[in-house]
Amino acid sequence: MFVDQVEIDVKAGDGGNGAVSFRREKCVPRGGPNGGDGGRGGSIIIEIDLSLSTLLDFRYKSRYHADRGGDGQSKDMSGKNGQDLVLRVPPGTQVYDAKTGQLVVDMAPPVMHFVVAKGGGGGKGNSHFATAVRQTPRFAEKGEPGVTARLRLDLKLLADVGIIGFPSVGKSTLIAAVSAARPKIADYPFTTLVPNLGVVAVDDGRSFVMADMPGLIEGAHKGAGLGLRFLRHIERTRVLAHVLDVSGLTDRDPMEDYEVLNRELRAYDENLAEAPQIVTLNKVDVAGSEELVSRLTQELEACGCRVFCVSAATRQGLRPWLFALWEALQATPAPTPGVIPDDVAHFGPPETAHLKDWHVEKTGPDSWIVAGEALDRLTRRTDLENEYALVRLQRTMERLGVYRKLAQEGAADGDTVTIGGFEFEYIDEDAGR
User: Fold this and answer.
1) 247, 253, 255, 259: CA torsion to nearest 10
2) pLDDT at 193
3) Torsion region of 223: left, alpha or beta (phi above 0 gives left; psi -120 to 50 gives alpha)
4) Which residue in 239, 219, 220, 238 sits closest to 230, CA to CA?
5) Do 234 and 210 meet the contact criterion of CB atoms below 8 Å apart?
6) Domains assigned to the chain
7) From start to end of 148-301, where are the E strands?
8) How far apart are the C-alpha atoms of 417 and 119, rounded to whole Å?
9) Span 17-27, mean pLDDT?
10) What pTM does this model have?
11) CB 70 within 8 A of CB 119
């Protein structure tokens, strides 16, 4: 089964919690804190697997979770890092943020792997918080939650040559004749329901990848037939082999088919219509086709087209045709390599976030939000059920001027303040005086 578009939910592993522990050894009075750090949560990594050509595996499983980091232990022992989860995709897969439609990464060489969801950092053990005035810290940090995201995976096949044409013109027979691909072939429209890939050997070790693109008819760029589903696969091809049926056994006009398909390509993507084309007159072995072949050759060459007469059934003219495709490939620039956009969708806070970067916003008559990536992260790492950890958070916010700013903006005693997804009650110490 060929699957070229799926949506998946991913969640990186949560970081492990830091430990609260103290040295307790004979003859070592006041040993001090020795709680270890929590381990890092496993990340979700997208990686290219050159042996794949479909997203089929993601059809049967759509939720992926990486391992959680281990908790810290006594004796300054850190928790075990969570194992990364690697999702393997075929080359040409584009990863989008399913909620916003923003491109995250284009998985094509040289981009071979990409961390799409980073594991949460491990919480620090209490040994990190010992100071001259706080020699027995009775708190540690919680592990940071792993990043969650909903992704859309779009596969755009990476092929050098794309065979296009109306149904039943012999595209599948052609790719079967020149490669090891074995598509389903029958004498009725839309026999081919999925693209077929084949490696074509030209000569002396030279080869290229050819793809048979199904479902192209008039109105394909609007979704007629199967066109809208598969037109995107042609975008990455460097050369198009435009196949026309010249057997004369149908009531279709090959020249009209040629013009219709080129209009469809132009309507879908102007750049695609400008791609080099080798016009391929197929089924020239059929008796009585000579007159039609002669007329079409003259008309097409008058339009500046390179025309080749072939028969997939008898293999007539295939060798010169393959050499022409190879020459066209050599004269065509290499495809654009995989990219990581400058405005890549980031899931989770950036590593460069600073505690001083925050702002206050009023969200209702008696509700406020204090937003800041680093402050949110600190709040999520704080064990709010531990009174010592809560005092540390309050002192940090006081030092940053959060309470002073809330008072300046008009926060009243009893208002609700949200930080990092947690709600706190604002207490105005001057209100009772």
Assistant:
1) -130
2) 52
3) left
4) 220
5) no
6) 1-155 (2.70.210.12), 161-330 (3.40.50.300), 359-425 (3.30.300.350)
7) 148-155, 161-164, 196-203, 206-212, 239-245, 277-282
8) 28
9) 86
10) 0.73
11) no
How far, in Å, CA of 279 to CA of 82, rounded? 55
Structure tokens at 240: 């198009």
- The secondary structure element, H or E, covering residue 361 is strand 359-364
pLDDT value at position 194? 63
* Secondary structure, 3-state, the chain: CCCCEEEEEEECCCCCCCCCCECCECCECCCCECCCCCCCCCCEEEEECCCCCCCCHHHHCCEEECCCCCCCECCCECCCCCCCEEEEECCCEEEEECCCCCEEEEECCCCCEEEEECCCCCCCCHHHHCCCCCCCCCCCCCCCCCCEEEEEEEECCCCCEEEECCCCCCHHHHHHHHCCCCCCCCCCCCCCCCCEEEEEEEECCEEEEEEECCCCCCCHHHCCCCHHHHHHHHCCCCEEEEEEECCCCCCCCHHHHHHHHHHHHHHHCHHHHCCCEEEEEECCCCCCCHHHHHHHHHHHHHCCCEEEECECCCCECHHHHHHHHHHHHHCCCCCCCCCCCCCCCCCCCCCCCCCCCCEEEEEECCEEEEECHHHHHHHHHCCCCCHHHHHHHHHHHHHHCHHHHHHHHCCCCCCEEEECCEEEECCCCCCCC
Residue 81 has phi, psi (to 5 degrees) of -70, 140
Tokens linked to 408: 């300046």
* Beta partners for residue 307, in sequence order: 279
Report the sign of the C-alpha dihedral through residues 123, 128, 134, 136, in that order: positive
**What DSSP assignment string belongs to 375-388?**
HHHHHHHS-TT-HH
240-260: b (≥16 Cβ within 10 Å) or e: bbbbbbbbbeeeeebeebbeb
Task: Tokens for 148, please give them.
Answer: 């969650």
**Per-residue model confidence as pLDDT tens digits over 288-327:** 888 888 999 999 888 888 999 998 888 899 999 999 999 9
